[in-house]
Design brief:
By secondary structure, the chain is an all-beta fold. It has no helices and eleven strands.
């Protein structure tokens, strides 16, 4: 089994900052791209930021300049630091991990962490 565990969500005021963490563990032999996605009520899940095992990053236009994704390969952990948060950032944030397992390359999702930006 593979576990993907997120932490760091919560409530923050507009203009504030927070950092999300995600760790993948279990029967995953090589971890490739990891990333953060978010889902607004009634909408599909959208990419926020991704990072490859080599450190190449990609950001959604809506968070460019406000978000930084980073990674520690030694423990399959990624972080998402978000600054200048807006009410529009309110969503459930999910971590995705793509990696090599015994049966092939698979994607795994965490259970999500709520981020609420309000005064």
């Amino acid at each position: 089994q593979v576990q993907v565990v997120e932490s760091g969500g919560g409530s923050v005021q507009p203009g504030g900052s927070l950092t999300l963490s995600c760790t993948a563990s279990g029967n995953i032999y090589s971890v490739y791209t990891m990333g953060w996605y978010r889902q607004f009520p009634g909408k599909d899940r959208d990419m926020v930021a991704t990072i490859t095992e080599h450190g190449t990053t990609n950001y959604a236009d809506s968070v460019k300049g406000r978000a930084t994704i980073s990674r520690v390969n030694a423990n399959n952990t990624i972080y998402l630091q978000m600054n200048s948060l807006k009410p529009d950032d309110t969503a459930v944030y999910y971590c995705n991990t793509r990696g090599q397992t015994r049966i092939g390359v698979l994607n795994f999702w965490g259970q999500g962490t709520q981020v609420t930006v309000s005064a």
